[in-house]
Automatic annotation (TrEMBL):
Major location (coarse): cytoplasm
CDD domains: proteasome_alpha_type_4
Descriptive protein name: Proteasome subunit alpha type
Residue ranges occupied by any Proteasome alpha-type subunits domain in the UniProt entry: 5-27
GO CC term (a single one): proteasome core complex, alpha-subunit complex
Subunit structure: The 26S proteasome consists of a 20S proteasome core and two 19S regulatory subunits.
GO biological process, one term: ubiquitin-dependent protein catabolic process
Species this protein is from: Phlebiopsis gigantea (strain 11061_1 CR5-6) (White-rot fungus)
Keywords: Cytoplasm, Nucleus, Proteasome
Amino acid sequence: MARRYDSRTTIFSPEGRLYQIEYAMEAISHAGTVLGVLAKDGIVLAAEKKVTGKLLDLSETKSGGYGGSGEKIFLLNSNVIAGVAGITADANSLVNYARDYAQRHLYQYNEDIPVEMLAQNLCNLKQGYTQHGGLRPFGVSLLYAGYDPHYNFQLYHSDPSGNYSGWKATCIGANSGTAQSLLKQEYKEDIAIEEAIGLVLRVMSKTMDSTTLGSEKLEFATLTLDAEQRPKAKIYRPAEIDALLKKHDLAKKDEDAEMKS
């Protein structure tokens, strides 16, 4: 009888593969796109939001505040924001864990947690779920956008296996291959935050499954420094996203409405 090497997380196949990890990554490849670009003076994150139905009550999202009330971009600490692709319930669990760990570090050392330390600790947790019997891997990938005074702005990506890596610009979720090729063509080493915002919006408009680009299907955030050189995270509200799209001539809905009229 053929053995079911994918029936347990901890069983290797004869080729040395862990199928449950590969299945988790496959789930992420069907999730909404999340895009991150590192600029010399900040970081930009954008995420495709899956709208499940017209009757969904989005009133709280529209009035949401600083911490973000969406499902794709979260504030982990005052110096770190994260974009998630995959199973949202798994992401919520990891986000809560990361917030708790960041606050314990702040309490113990009286300084914000270094970005890589937070990513590494979350990856240790995720790796543990690939090693113990009776547990399944987290079906979510994260992009960490953060700042610390030693290494300035940093962008990291982690996957269900517990691997993480640093990037200048990257994409996770659906259509990530197309987005990566566009980023390779247009990304510049000395890009400024305003140029990065335009680049992210252009790439999202070409890679999102939706034919229209609007605040109901897009989440957006930036991490910059304020006047006192402290990290300032901004998670955009729907009205601000619509204004940003209009500024970059990507508000397709408005254009379509004008053509019809």
